[in-house]
Design a protein that fits this description.
Layout: E1 2-11, E2 14-20, H1 36-47, E3 68-75, E4 81-88
Antiparallel strand pairs: 1-2, 1-3, 3-4
């Protein structure tokens, strides 16, 4: 499986964000505190709905919000696309 895109709403420090991934290598770069690890956590959470950090799910919700949504599109080795979404409220 390969991830093609991911959309985040109220997840960690992302109120609304979309990320697209190309074939081959993709680099996630930026200064400290912008959400690079949070993006990796969202990708992991989409595949196994549990944080890789030792925290409760409600700690993944953006401050002053009551829910989050992670939605992504993945593609199998044979080219079949699947849309996956996880919502916590």
């Amino acid at each position: 499986m390969r991830i093609k895109n991911i959309d985040l709403t109220n997840f960690r420090n992302f109120r609304s964000a979309s990320f697209r991934f190309e074939d081959g290598l993709n680099f996630i770069v930026g200064p400290n505190g912008v959400g690079k690890t949070n993006l990796l956590e969202a990708i992991a959470y989409l595949s196994v709905p549990k944080s890789f950090r030792n925290i409760r799910d409600n700690e993944l919700v953006l401050w002053d919000e009551s829910w989050f949504r992670i939605e992504g599109e993945v593609e199998s080795e044979v080219g079949t696309a699947h849309r996956i979404a996880v919502v916590y409220s």
